[in-house]
Write a structure and sequence with these properties.
Blueprint (H helix, E strand, L loop, with lengths): L3 H11 L3 H15 L4 E4 L10 E7 L3 E9 L10 H17 L2 E2 L5 E2 L3 E5 L6 H10 L8 E3 L1 H11 L1 H7 L2 H5 L10 H6 L15 E5 L2 E2 L2 H4 E5 L3 E4 L1 H19 L8 H15 L2 H41 L6 H16 L4 H13 L2 H7 L5 H27 L6 E4 L2 H23 L7 H21 L7 E5 L14 H5 L5 E5 L5 H14 L5 E5 H5 L12 H12 L6 H12 L5 E5 L1 H7 L3 H11 L4 E7 L11 E5 L4 H12 L4 H14 L8 H12 L9 H18 L9 H17 L7 H9 L8 H12 L6 E3 L4 E3 L3 H14 L15 H10 L4 H10 L6 H8 L4 H16 L21
Parallel strand pairs: 3-6, 6-7, 14-17, 14-18, 15-16, 16-17
Antiparallel strand pairs: 1-2, 2-3, 4-5, 8-9, 8-18, 10-13, 11-12, 19-20
Helix pairs in contact: 5-6, 10-18, 12-13, 12-16, 13-14, 13-16, 14-16, 15-16, 17-18, 22-25, 26-27, 26-28, 28-29, 29-30, 30-31, 30-32, 30-33, 31-32, 33-34, 34-36, 36-37
């Protein structure tokens, strides 16, 4: 691939005069390389020497160099034949004419260089060297490409001065467009380059995946809801206004202004002077009523105490019956809330027993208090009537009432789903008439609306529901087109995927494609590399945006100063249809959480620039990026085979066919469908390692990469726990889940599995951290937003991890799993690594018969090396023949008594 930046530098150098080329490029270049004295000799008396350079070497020796500059080479306007004779003469003079040193001595140059801003042809090099071999000395060539290479290494600021501002910002360093981290992780020297095969794509916004648009029917309910003013303001800001903007329909039965007018009218009545007076009257009545009730309860308590005392000590008291009946009447008054009938009954009791007279005669008894209670009960009856009247008149603080326009929203959603299906089908069929920008905009809008309805509303499940459409079951969401087609349409896109899904490779291939096409309007920025070069100890006034701009400047070998930031801003503002690729957002976020704010601010400032971002998925901050997300899906089987064929196309095409046939025969295509695992497979085959009969080696490499090896090669540290602890924790969790026949569990359940595992000897806090880091950044535990649980993704991954725990934890008794269909996959993976013939004897001793384990054992044999299989099959056959003749095939093998401690 032609390096566009190199061509720009060459053209800039070739415009210089020869003497300027010598004085302003070659002279400072040699000075930067450690030459302590570089003198310009250009002119009529140069004797073939434009520059004389000196350098000190060990043992007090000074070496001298002569440099002749000549604008000669490929694409130069000067005829090589015309100047060749003169050039040869000048270069021979360099070898024969001595150089006078500063101390007066004269020396013959130790080395002679020919410098040119052009690329010097091989033919010319051969001619010069053929004629200029004197005393075994040859002229060394410093042509344009080599000069640029040396300047980049020793004096990059000179290159900056060569180009215009637009040239600098439009120049892409091709060395950045190679997935160095991936190649290091795979122990390879070369990248994949232009393998023309892509994985399918899926879209999402927030937590909503586009597959729901293919097989779901959405329903929003028409129920009425009442909320406080504060909750309404939140609802209006996060739900109502975005929904109205995105759908361009009125999402509620009444618009927000009408709802607020009604509320404000009701609120005005609530805060009116009249209503406040009523409230004060209610409070006063409540206080009086509460005082009366309190007094009556105290008297009841005194009466009960006195009655108990008289009864316990069998004392004579003529008023005992009256006291007992008074307690009953008083309690009835309280329980009936002073209803008129109860008060009348109490009055009848008072009059019939002449309690008023008795109270006067027994002033020191409790009878006067009974009379007082009767008066307060009558007063309370009137107060209760008045209180009910006041409450009827009082207007409580109103709530805002709203209901969704369910029919309109349901229609909008279902029409969008149908449109998405039509577009996907058309694009996948190769229809190039589909407006991709419109398609992406529509998809983003639909997913945004669903994200709002699912994630932004309080108690959304009470309002919004989804059901799977039966006739759409089995429809696979996958946009089968090159991601480049999406990138070309100027839509902002965030590229997501798991580790090794091909995010970086895809973006770098796209940037290289644009460079090949001569498109200089792209800036590719690998965030993790350049964030390390930015001084993060900025003063507090420095904005996150400035740090982002500084990274772009550093990637262009420019100082991150205010003057250069302003130049970059001016360049970006004047450009249309330019693209900036921010690769590795998740890695940068660890060290610089402000990166998201910086990118969002950048987009607002330069809305003419298309942004492409990459990140691992399942990170907590995705919803903060308001870009349409595309997920790189696993390869289909056809895409996998195309990938393998492309890998070996120029190396060993026959080997690719052997690999493909082995994959088909061993049925392991499902576990090598990401570019990373497919690359691992090709890497093993290329190194002469046969495709293993087991998947374990590939999975083990995958696990190590996800738990930190990949990050190690990137020189970043995103996990607090060591790789070994995270790997061990993944084994324990997978085994616990498999033991409970679980495919998914909540985060707290996963933590509990680790805490309760006696062989995971770490503090509870470490258990919690391990689960957190296996979720993010390791991306081993995958979140399902529908069930709000975590899983290992593909069941095969869980089976692999569970098999490793079986292999490493010798305290686990394996034999009872042999008759369980659920465990067959894990046991086959276990068999890939472990010789298992001893299990046949142990199983027979425990259960007296081998039959319940036969299916699993025979499958396990298939995963052992071929040379073992015949022996194992014979062993199984012999155990089967020796089974107890009285074995009852209907015997229930119940292991419900057994506990694994989980």
């Amino acid at each position: 691939m032609e390096d566009t930046s190199q061509q720009l530098y060459l053209k800039a150098m070739q415009k210089m005069k020869e003497d300027d080329f010598s004085k302003y490029l070659i002279k400072p270049l040699f000075e930067s390389m450690g030459f302590y004295r570089v003198d310009f000799y250009g002119g009529p008396y140069e004797s073939g020497k434009d520059l004389i350079a000196f350098v000190e070497v060990p043992v007090n020796k000074t070496m001298s160099y002569a440099i002749q500059s000549k604008k000669i080479g490929e694409e130069s306007n000067t005829s090589e034949k015309v100047i060749l004779g003169e050039l040869v003469f000048q270069l021979r003079q360099c070898f024969t004419n001595p150089i006078k040193l500063h101390n007066g001595e004269e020396v013959i140059p130790d080395q002679v260089y020919l410098a040119s801003p052009y690329q010097i042809s091989i033919r010319l090099i051969d001619e010069i060297h053929g004629m200029l071999s004197i005393d075994r000395k040859k002229v060394e060539i410093l042509d344009g490409p080599l000069v640029i290479q040396l300047l980049k290494k020793h004096k990059p600021t000179l290159l900056e001065k060569l180009l215009s501002v637009d040239d600098i910002f439009s120049t892409q360093d091709s060395s950045q467009l190679c997935n160095i981290e991936l190649m290091s992780a795979l122990n390879q020297k070369d990248s994949i380059h232009e393998l023309d095969c892509y994985s399918d794509l899926a879209f999402f916004m927030g937590t909503i995946d586009s597959n729901v648009l293919l097989n779901s029917k959405f329903t929003i309910k028409p129920d009425k809801f009442q909320v406080t003013r504060g909750k309404w303001e939140l609802f209006e800001r996060t739900v109502y206004i975005p929904l109205k903007f995105l759908t361009t329909i009125e999402p509620l039965n009444q618009d927000a202004s009408s709802i607020l007018i009604k509320y404000n009218n009701e609120y005005s009545v609530f805060i009116s002077k009249e209503n406040r007076e009523i409230k004060r009257s209610i409070d006063q009545a409540n206080q009086l009523l509460a005082g009366n009730i309190s007094f009556i309860r105290e008297v009841i308590s005194e009466l009960e105490t006195s009655i108990n005392n008289i009864t316990r000590h069998k004392l004579e008291n003529a008023n005992l019956v009256i006291m007992i009946q008074s307690v009953t009447n008083l309690k009835n008054c309280l329980e009936a809330s002073f209803q008129e009938k109860v008060i009348e009954d109490f009055g009848t009791f008072i009059n019939a027993n002449k309690i008023h007279d008795l109270a006067k005669a027994n002033a020191r008894s409790l009878l006067p208090k009974i009379v007082e209670c009767f008066k307060k009960a009558k007063a309370s009856q009137l107060q209760s009537i008045e209180l009910r009247k006041l409450r009827d008149e009082y207007k409580e603080e109103p709530k805002i009432e709203y209901a969704f326009n369910s029919e309109l929203i349901n229609s909008w959603l279902n029409e969008r789903c149908e449109k998405y299906k039509v577009d996907i089908k058309a694009i996948n069929s190769g229809d190039n008439s589909v407006d991709i920008f419109r398609f992406l905009n529509d998809t983003q809008t639909t997913l945004n609306v669903l994200d709002i309805l699912v994630n932004k509303m309080e108690d959304s499940e009470k309002v919004f529901s989804k059901e799977v459409v039966m006739d759409s079951i089995g429809v696979i969401d996958g946009l089968s087109t090159s991601p480049f087609r999406l990138f070309d349409c100027q839509h902002d896109i965030a590229v997501y995927g798991s580790a090794g899904a091909g995010k970086t490779t895809t973006l770098q291939m796209y940037a290289r494609k644009l460079e090949l096409e001569g498109n200089r309007g792209v800036i590719y920025l690998p965030l993790n590399r350049f964030l390390n070069k930015v001084d993060m100890n900025f003063d507090s006034k420095t904005k996150n945006y400035d740090i982002l701009m500084s990274m772009i400047l550093i990637s262009k070998s420019l100082e991150p100063i205010r003057e250069n930031i302003e130049k970059l801003e001016l360049h970006l503002q004047n450009k249309k249809r330019n693209k900036i690729i921010f690769d590795g957002l998740d890695e940068a976020y660890v060290k610089f959480p402000g990166i998201i704010e910086a990118i969002n601010f950048f987009k607002k400032k330069f809305d003419n620039i298309q942004l492409l971002i990459s990140s691992r998925d399942c990170v907590s901050y995705l919803s903060e990026i308001d870009f349409l997300g595309i997920t790189l899906m696993p390869f289909s089987e056809t895409q996998l085979y195309s990938f393998i064929q492309a890998w070996f196309k120029d190396k060993n095409p026959a080997l690719s066919e052997v690999i493909i046939e082995n994959i088909k025969a061993k049925k392991i295509s499902d576990i090598v469908r990401t570019p990373l695992l497919a690359t691992l497979l090709c890497d093993l085959a290329e190194k002469g390692i046969d495709i293993p009969s087991s998947e374990s080696e590939i999975f083990t490499k995958r696990l190590e990469l996800l738990c930190g090896s990949y990050d190690t090669f990137k020189d970043i540290k995103r996990t607090k726990l060591s790789q070994s602890i995270l790997i061990k924790a993944s084994h324990k969790i997978a085994f616990a889940m498999h033991s409970k026949t679980l495919r998914a569990a909540t985060k707290q359940e996963l933590i509990t599995f680790l805490i309760n595992d006696p062989s995971f000897n770490y503090e509870d806090s470490t258990c919690s951290l391990a689960v957190t880091e296996l979720i993010d950044p390791c991306n081993i535990l995958i979140f399902d937003p529908i069930s709000e649980t975590f899983s290992f993704g593909h069941l095969r991954y869980q089976e692999h991890l569970a098999s490793l725990e079986l292999m490493q934890n010798r305290s686990i008794e394996i034999i009872h799993y042999l008759k369980n269909d659920w465990w067959r996959g894990s046991l086959c993976l276990y068999a890939q690594c472990c010789e298992f013939s001893i299990l046949l004897e142990e199983f027979t001793l425990r259960y007296s018969n081998i039959k319940p384990a036969l299916i699993t054992l025979r499958e396990m044999v298939k995963f052992r090396p071929e040379k073992e299989r015949r022996h194992l099959n014979e062993l199984i056959y012999n155990y089967e023949r020796s089974d107890d003749d009285y074995f009852n095939s209907s015997f229930e093998w119940d292991d419900s008594w057994r506990s694994d401690g989980y």
